[in-house]
Structures are given as C-alpha cells and as structure tokens.
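Input record, target 12 of the design panel.
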C-alpha cells in the first residue's frame, strides 16, 4: 500500500495520467497564449502542431537521462536472457562509474537547448514578422523551462524499486 491506503498499482498509473494531462494542457495553453502575445491570424492549433517537434528534443533528453543508467546497468541480464531464454533468470548488473549520472543531466539540458533552437527556427518560419516570432516564444519557452525543471527534478530523485515489483 502506498499513501492513504491507495494501492501502488492504482496510484502510479494515475500519477502518470495526471502528469501527462498537466503537460498537455500547459502546452496547449502556451500555444494559445503565443497566438495572443504575438498577434497573428495563424490558428492556435496550427501553432501547437508546428511547435510540437521542439518538444521531442526535451523528451529525448529526458528519456536518455532517465533510462540510460538502467539500460546499461541491466544489460548483462538482458544479454543472458537473450542467449538462454529458457533458463531461469539470473540477476546480473553492470557496475557503472559515478560520473555517468552527469550524462543524464547533460542530456536534459542539451535537449532543452535543442528544443529552443528548433522552436526559434519554427517561429521565424511560421510567423511573418521578426517581433512576432520572438514574442510567440515567450510562453512556449516558459513551458519548456517547466518541462526541463520537472525532468531534472525527476532524474535527481533517488532510484528505488517500485513497491509492487
């Protein structure tokens, strides 16, 4: 049981869903506000679709940061299972150097910088005026900073086994 009698099998997926919906709503708010801050006839949905690829860089940086250490550490168990799939599993882990966790932080920050660059290029491509392009990025940059801060906070948490495994 996790917190207030709610089982982990319910709490974890619910938390993921609430997190996704929060990030989704924040992005759509940023797209609508970008349209208002940089007055344009371009629809907010069009702006949201055009700026969406910039979020892929943040997502890639986060996933690399979050899963790189797990994938490398558990790779001996994976190779053992692939080589002998019918044998009982043997838990083997790779001991990784301490500096490898810094790669995760760098991946998140580089993903954020790449996202800003892509959003900047998209703004200049999509909007006719230079000032409009710059203004359109105010709220989107705020959303990206929030995403990046959240990613850094998550990867900064101590690792542990989920209680239901």
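The sequence produced for target 12 reads:
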């Amino acid at each position: 049981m996790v917190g207030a009698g709610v089982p982990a099998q319910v709490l974890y997926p619910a938390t993921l869903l609430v997190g996704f919906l929060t990030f989704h709503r924040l992005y759509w708010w940023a797209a609508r506000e970008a349209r208002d801050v940089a007055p344009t006839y371009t629809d907010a949905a069009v702006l949201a679709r055009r700026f969406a690829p910039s979020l892929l860089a943040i997502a890639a940086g986060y996933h690399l940061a979050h899963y790189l250490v797990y994938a490398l550490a558990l790779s001996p168990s994976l190779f053992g299972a692939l080589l002998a799939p019918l044998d009982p599993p043997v838990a083997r882990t790779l001991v990784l150097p301490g500096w490898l966790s810094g790669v995760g932080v760098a991946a998140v920050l580089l993903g954020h910088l790449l996202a800003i660059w892509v959003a900047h290029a998209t703004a200049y491509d999509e909007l006719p005026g230079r000032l409009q392009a710059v203004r359109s990025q105010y709220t989107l940059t705020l959303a990206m900073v929030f995403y990046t801060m959240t990613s850094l906070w998550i990867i900064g948490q101590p690792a542990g086994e989920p209680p239901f495994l």
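Residues 123 and 133 are 5 Å apart (CA to CA).
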